[in-house]
What does this fold into?
Amino acid sequence: MTAQVHARTDAGRVRPGNEDAFLVADLEAGTTIPMAGAPHETAVPDHGLVFLVADGMGGAASGELASSMGTTFLLEALLAQWTPRPPAVGAFVEALRDATVSANQRLHRYAQDHPEHRGMGTTMTVAGVLGDQLYLVQVGDSRAYLVRDGEARQLTKDQSLIQRLVELGELTAEQAETSRRRNIILQALGPEAQVVVDLTHQPLRRGDTLVLCSDGLSGLVTPAELAAAVMATPDVAQLSEALVALANARGGHDNITVVAVRFEGDGLAPAQAGDAVGYTVYPLAGTLNDGTVPTALSPTGASHLRADPTPRFGTPVPPPEVIAQARAAMAARAAEPAIAGGREGAGDPTRLEERRARALPVQVALALLGVSALLWALASLLGR
It folds into this structure.
C-alpha cells in the first residue's frame, strides 16, 4: 500500500499573511515529510502516516502562531504517545484523540501566559492512516473529502453554528453553503481550556484520493468541482496546484491550504458498489459522539496534561433563543442589498479575524455569547 502526497498553502489574493498550516509526517520514522516540488510517494509504514490542515485565527500574528504551534504540539504528543507502542487500532485512535487534546491544552496555556495572544486559536483536521483504514480527528471547520469513482464525499462535519442549524432543520444544506454566518465556529484549539474532538473513520480502497483543506478552498470550490479536478489530474502535485489556482481565480478571499493524498497498491481492496463513504463515527470515550460515560484520557495521554480536559458533555446544541437570534440575523441580512460578486466579503481586503472581531449585528453577537455561555455552563455544572 502506497500513498502519493503533496501539500500546498497560499495566502490567497486578499490577506497580507498566511495563517494556515499543514503537516505530513511518517509516524514510523518520527519525521515530517517535505512538500516542495514533486509529489512524495511512500509505502504506508507499520505505525502509519498523519496528515493535517490547520486554519489559525486571533488577530495580528496570533493566528499564524496558533496554527504553527498547534501543529507542532500535536505531532510531539503523537510521537511521544504512539510511536513507542506496538501498532494496534485501539492505541492509534486513543493517541490521535489524546494528542489533539494535549495540543489544545498547551496552546491555551501559552495564550494564558502571553496576554498579547489571548484568544488565539486554530481549527484542525487530522487524518491518520493505519493499514487500510483512515481515522479523522476534527476540531472546527476545515474539511476532509474522499474522492472515489468521480464523486467527492465529505468525511468530516463542520463544528459551526450553521451546521448545527442544518442538523436542527432550521436551514437547508444549500442555504448553509451561501450563508454569511459560516465563519461562526463552535470550537477551535486554543481559546478554551477544554476541547472535545470528533472522531470518525473510513476504509480506504485502491485509487482513493483524500483531500484535506481549509475553508479558503471549501468556501469557493464545490465538492463536484473538487472531484472533477481529481479525475482530470492524476498527479497530486498538479492537483493541489490546480485547486489553489481555482480558489484564487474566484477571488482568493482567504488563505488556501490543500493536502492531497492518492492511495494505491495491492494491499488495498478495489472499490465495490456497496461501499459506504462519508461521515462515520468511530465510538471512543471522550469524543464528540461518544454516548458513553466520559472517562479520563489514557494514562499516556493524561501524563502530558495538568488535568483531564475532556468536557462532560456531548455535541453543543444552541438553545432555542440562540437559534431564534441567528434566524433573525440571517433574515435581516437577506433583506440587505446584495454584495457585488454574490459572496460575503467579495473584494474586501480586511483580514478574516478582523472581520470576525469587528462590531457584528446585535443578534449575531448574542448568538456567539449564548453558545459560549452554554458551553461554560455545562462544563461548570457537570465538572471538568
